[in-house]
Structure prediction request, 584 residues.
Amino acid sequence: MVINQYWSPILASKVHDVVLNSSDGLYKVDFSDAELHVLEGKITLYNITLQPDTDVYKQKKKQHLAPNNLVELRVKKLVLLNIHPLSLYFRHKLNIGRVILNEPEVNISYQLNHTKDTVVKDHRTAWQKISKSLKSIHIGQILLNDVKLKYQDYSGNKVVISELKEMNLNATDLLIDSLTQTDHSRLLYCKDIITELNNYTGKTPSGLYTYKIKYLKLSTLTSKLNIEGLHLEPAQTGVFFNKSQHDRFGLNIDTLQLNHFDFLNYHKYRRLNAASLELSGGILRVFSNPYGKKDSTVNRVNTFPPMMIHQIGTDMRIDTVRIRNFDVEYSELNKKSNQIGTLTFNNTRGYFYNLTNDSEALAKNNMATVQLTTYFMNRGRLDVQFNFNLTDKNAAFTYKGALGPMDLEVLNPAIMPLAMVKASSGTVKQLSFDIQANSKVFKGKVGFLYNDLKVNIFQADTVNDRLKKRSIMSIFANLFVIEHNNPDTIGDAPRIANVIYSRPKDSPFFKTMWKTLLEGIKPCVGFDDKKQKETKHRIEEHQQNKKDRLSKKAERKKRKAERKKEKELKNAQRRLQMATAAEV
Prediction:
């Protein structure tokens, strides 16, 4: 009791001075009681509060010196182990072996007061600020268990609030002295800070998506951020499309690792700087909105990757992104067939280089390169390379690649619902393309080599809710429209298409890419502009002949009915005459 009564005021005074001086008066700390156990080297503090002084904060905002983050801390019990109170009192050195905080409550609010450390301010280090009270501070380990964190972000149009639970923090070897004051290998003067988060769930501001993280770990010593089990789950289809005009996305990532991640820069200024990002295992699902309003006056250039990168609210610079064992599914509802078709790209792997919207990085290198290898419909190998100009106002880019051998029947689950066409036979030998593009026009070359191509054409049977084969049209297409081989015979030059496709303003990025390839595939199968005109003429002629036949059939039926009626009338008159004669 005597020791507590004597040392507690001294301890409280030292703690108050250190916090007040090191924060330039912005923060003040308080606690209700303290227990000192000298022989055990243990101090227990109760009901600790760390709060900012709002008046000082407002004054610093006027001076452009206010930090972007404000912190409030409440802890019912804090335990300090292996301390040396005599060293603190006589040598002015605070040495603590371990600090344990159980179930602390932390509230952090973020507001972008400044983007760079360029304002005039106090350039003294933390050690220089506390040197009048302490010569050094050393804590071997800081443990925060079961942290409850509330984070309020005021940087956008709306306040975004995130609440974290099941979070643990472990900081090792915190040292503030004359030597470490300029040690850039330490973060917040700690050799390493490890943060772990389990089973985190949140919702986007629209409420249409739920995101989940099974496990997250951040180490400042290795500068690595690891995430396991990242899920972005959309609302149910009916609910989603009733509230949104956008496409519906779903994302699952098994593991994510961000290397050489500058956490402090992100924490202070929302700048995402990293050497590399690795994504391993997962799937991206996209369902095109079948109820979206069509507006040809709206320019959907914002769906182009260069534009999307600049629309990200975070200043980003990632040198390399690596993807392994990733699947992509694209689904669309055809209103005519009332069926859903799905295209898949399986076991996707590859690299993204120079993924950035940072002005300084773009001044040095404004090109982003993407190299991908995937298996189309889990069969044909597709190698593709993109080159994006990240500063061009028209979003200029190029893409080229090749699809390897595969059976065309594999495409039927997708093309039957979407195009109401079925490949009855055929083998792709190679699909190659080399396109130069921007937001206005796509042009280049497309080659499509194949053998034994035959198709069947279908139409929607709304009564029985199925697709019905159009036999005559299928025969017509196979006989007069498509070429069954390219090249026609071995040794002949294959048909190669030169494509120029003007993009409609309302056409998004991937749809325009596919339309351009389709414009090149048509001539390769013999369905060029001349053949399209001939086919259109033949179809119109066939439809007109069908109308004529139906019209003649109707006329014949009418004449037959009239003759039958006349015959019945004559028979009736004859029967009447005979009846009259019999009466006479």
In short: The CA atoms of residues 29 and 50 lie 5 Å apart.
